[in-house]
Design a protein that fits this description.
This protein is mainly alpha-helical. Helix content is about 45%, strand content about 5%. Strand 3 and strand 4 form a beta hairpin.
């Protein structure tokens, strides 16, 4: 997950963004319902074939990507004044990006426990960040945080940043980096809980708009090769 802060944000636009994003909220409500349904299909597909159906994978990544763009525009970050596009696809010139590498193989056994048991420590942390951890915990609620706005520590810091922006015209860089780090952590957990990877998310707050890359050591003992993927488990970026 990467993002770029707009150099000149409006001092007042954030006051009405909750109205402007209503069309996105309506569409995302249906998209996340579809996400929940096809994720159940993907669960059984992985359980019996050890593979995530590619069409479902692409759809689910698209829903997460769309949600992240709306979150970044609205009250999960307020990092841009550019209105989010209505598309599941990557938009190269939009300031918020999310991509997930398609896994060639997934564990049949882990699919039974990773989305609830193994991820519990992360759910607690994400719950503090987002006020309930809705990115990952409330899968049965269609992850409503992506539709209803931020909360928890992220919400508090975004509100502080908005007030500072209103009076100074500048978004505080340190707060921006911290907010992006918390969102990045939550998105990594979301990708893991959505069964998109078997690699456990790191307990690390990578701040700022650019996600660090991961050098994956090859199994054969050859020299490490930069993958260009992130430390979400060489999946989410």
């Amino acid at each position: 997950m990467n993002a770029t802060l707009d150099p000149k944000l409006s001092r007042w636009l954030w006051l009405v963004k909750w109205i402007l994003v209503i069309p996105h909220y309506v569409v995302l409500a249906f998209l996340w319902l579809g996400f929940l349904i096809v994720s159940i299909i993907a669960f059984f597909a992985i359980l019996f074939t050890a593979r995530y159906p590619r069409a479902i994978f692409d759809y689910n990544v698209g829903v997460m990507r769309w949600s992240w763009r709306v979150t970044y525009y609205a009250y999960g970050a307020l990092g841009t004044d550019r209105y989010p596009p209505f598309t599941l696809k990557e938009v190269e010139d939009y300031p918020a990006h999310l991509a997930v590498d398609y896994p060639a193989h997934l564990s049949r056994g882990l699919v039974l426990v990773k989305w609830w048991l193994l991820a519990i420590p992360h759910y607690i942390i994400v719950g503090i960040f987002l006020g309930g951890g809705a990115w990952a915990v409330n899968r049965t609620e269609s992850w409503q945080w992506t539709v209803s706005g931020g909360g928890g520590l992220v919400g508090v810091l975004v509100a502080i940043s908005a007030v500072i922006l209103l009076f100074t015209g500048a978004y505080p860089g340190s707060l921006y980096d911290f907010i992006l780090g918390m969102n990045r952590w939550a998105l990594r957990v979301a990708g893991y809980a959505a069964l998109m990877t078997d690699v456990y998310p790191p307990f690390r707050l990578d701040q700022g708009g650019s996600d660090p890359t991961l050098v994956v050591p090859p199994a054969s003992g050859d020299a490490p090769t930069p993958t260009g993927t992130t430390e979400t488990g060489d999946v989410l970026r």
